[in-house]
Amino acid sequence: MFALTLDQRRSRQAADAVPDLLRALDATPTVRGFERTVGDEVQALVDDPVAAVDVVALVARTQRWWIGIGVGDVETPVPTSVRAARGPALYAARTAVERAARCPAGVALDVGTGRDEEAGVDAETALQVLARLVADRSADGQQAVDVLERHATQRAAAQELGITPQAMSARLQVARRDDEQRLRHLAARLLVRADDAAT
């Protein structure tokens, strides 16, 4: 299981960003959905590594949140609210989000009892590289990546943006869209390894 804890950066100097974040993450497949747990903090439980990676990529690009991921078990039966959930994954997520505030990428991962720490370090490394890639992307590059998600071809995406296919290809290359896709797949595989390490 993957426990995700998101803590708003510089929350004392900024408006409450939790409502917007909850709307952005509403469609994410979860075991227990995202909800405000305390103050400017949001938590959820997911069992799909792809969903966990998607959350990191989506949230990291805003550069408004520290992201902590805990890998491990959750006590069963799992309560209806993530706020009442307990177990090593939740404790690891707490440690991770506190460490994320000291990481340049703003993302950290910790493993709970019974999981392999080395596998966790590998997964964290891939997620941190992914987070830096999407955070460093220009607005034009991110727009090109987002529009491409809605179309089957680069030509159709370019048409929506009113640019040539060659310009679209150049934007995607500068945005490192292919690198992002490979990193997403790698990170998801490494999360599986981290979660399965004890079995």
Question: Mind explaining what this structure looks like?
Answer:
- This protein has 199 residues and is an alpha+beta fold.
- Helix content is 50%, strand content 16%.
- The protein has one domain (2-137, 176-196): 2-Layer Sandwich (Alpha-Beta Plaits).
- It is built from 8 helices and 5 strands.
- It has a 5-stranded mixed sheet.
- β4 (65-71), α3 (88-100) and β5 (107-111) form a beta-alpha-beta unit.
- α2 (49-60) runs parallel beside α4, α4 (117-135) packs antiparallel against α8 (177-196) and α5 (139-149) crosses α6.
- This is DNA-binding protein.
Descriptive tags:
199 residues; alpha+beta; Alpha-Beta Plaits; 5-stranded mixed beta sheet; 8 helices; 5 strands; globular; DNA-binding protein
CATH architecture: 2-Layer Sandwich
Helix and strand succession?
EHEEHEHEHHHHH
Strand residue percentage? 15-25%
The profile of the biggest β sheet is: 5 strands, mixed
Helix content range = 40-55%
Strand line-up of the largest beta sheet: 2-3-1-4-5
The tally of domains stands at 1
Rg for CA atoms: 17 Å
Stated plainly, the CATH topology is called Alpha-Beta Plaits
CATH class categorisation: Alpha Beta
Helix segment tally:
8
Task: Give me the secondary-structure category.
Answer: alpha+beta
Global geometry? globular
Outline the low-pLDDT stretches: none
Mean of residue pLDDT values: 94
Report how far the terminal alpha carbons are from each other: 13 Å
DSSP summary, beta strand count: 5
Protein name: DNA-binding protein
Organism: Aeromicrobium erythreum
